[in-house]
Design brief:
The structure holds two protein chains of two kinds.
Chain A lengths: L1 H12 L5 H20 L4 H8 L2 H19 L4 H13 L5 H38 L5 H41 L9
Helix pairs in contact in A: 1-2, 1-4, 2-3, 4-5, 4-7, 5-6, 5-7, 6-7
Chain B lengths: L2 H15 L5 E2 H11 L7 H10 L3 E6 L7 E6 L1 H29 L2
Antiparallel strand pairs in B: 1-3, 2-3
The chains are: A mainly alpha, B alpha+beta.
């Protein structure tokens, strides 16, 4: 049975998606097979016009990942999953999506590191003013206050930047998933 | 016609077809693929995406010929999206038309 095979394969390919959503999606393809074969068309023909299940699964997964990432308010894990789903669709060039995305992540990590380092240095200044000889207590504590302030500001700024990057990435993916091509019918 | 191009207007077509009455997926897939050559299979992922984005709601309705069918209903959000897309399309089509006219009838 071509119909059974087709639907079974699609079901398995959609394994990352929770079952209720999967059932809802599958209903369309089951219905399509049912109505089309009832109107006298062969299962081969119907499977061919629907196209490769792998392709359909990828398109569905991309839509799901992007929506999920948007629902989670752009959490980095979810955005990264959406980016990978987009790349797996093959229409996105690895260089044009994954490359810049990883570069942006690296920049964010660098900023977070800077903010963390500033806080560490601030603690160092306090330590130095108490046990060391180079700084008086007043110098040490004011230096620490300034550094800690800078560190916290940098942290907040980076956090906002990360949100912005997530939002931008999602919008880009949404925009692109609207114009994904399929080669099985020209 | 260019596949990329068709894909872009597919969304507008699907929304337009459901503007006045709820339709089931097969109906949408077939009526669009009859008008212009587009892979039938690409209509369903689009319908699901539009549903996830809140432009459609779905429900099952009994059918005289066998099991219930899954109907797509345009939500108020979908309606305003349809209007926005239509305006966008009109402007775009008009601009392209003008450029063609100028180019050909020079």
């Amino acid at each position: 049975m071509i119909r059974q095979q087709y639907l079974q394969q699609l079901w398995e390919l959609l394994s990352p998606v929770p079952e209720p959503i999967k059932r809802d999606w599958m209903y369309d393809y089951e219905e399509h097979f049912r109505i089309a074969t009832e109107s006298g068309r062969s299962e081969e023909e119907v499977a061919a016009e629907l196209g490769d299940p792998r392709q359909i699964a990828k398109e569905l997964l991309l839509g799901y990942r992007v929506e999920q990432a948007a629902d989670k308010n752009g959490s980095i894990t979810h955005v990264s999953r959406a980016v990978l789903a987009a790349v797996s669709l093959g229409f996105f060039n690895l260089i044009f999506v994954l490359g810049p995305y990883i570069a942006l992540l690296a920049i964010l990590v660098a900023f977070y590191t800077v903010s963390f380092a500033l806080c560490v240095v601030a603690l160092g200044a306090i330590y130095e003013s108490i046990w060391g000889t180079d700084l008086t207590y007043l110098q040490g504590s004011s230096l620490a206050a300034v550094l800690m302030g800078l560190g916290i500001l940098a942290g907040i700024g980076t956090h906002r930047l990360a949100r912005g990057v997530a939002r931008m990435t999602l919008n880009y993916l949404k925009f692109n998933s609207k114009m994904i091509t399929r080669g099985n019918k020209k | 016609m260019n596949v990329q191009f068709k894909k872009g207007v597919l969304e507008l077509c699907v929304l337009t077809l459901t503007a006045w009455e709820d339709r089931y997926g097969y109906e949408l897939a077939v009526s669009i693929s009859q008008k212009f050559e587009v892979a039938v299979g690409s209509v369903y992922p689009l319908l699901n995406r539009l549903t996830m984005e809140g432009y459609f709601s779905t429900y099952l309705r009994e059918s005289p010929e066998g099991p219930p069918r899954k109907y797509y209903k345009l939500t108020p959000l979908g309606h305003s999206h349809l209007i926005a897309l239509t305006v966008e399309w009109r402007t775009f089509a008009q601009a392209v038309d003008e450029i063609i006219k100028e180019g050909v009838e020079r």
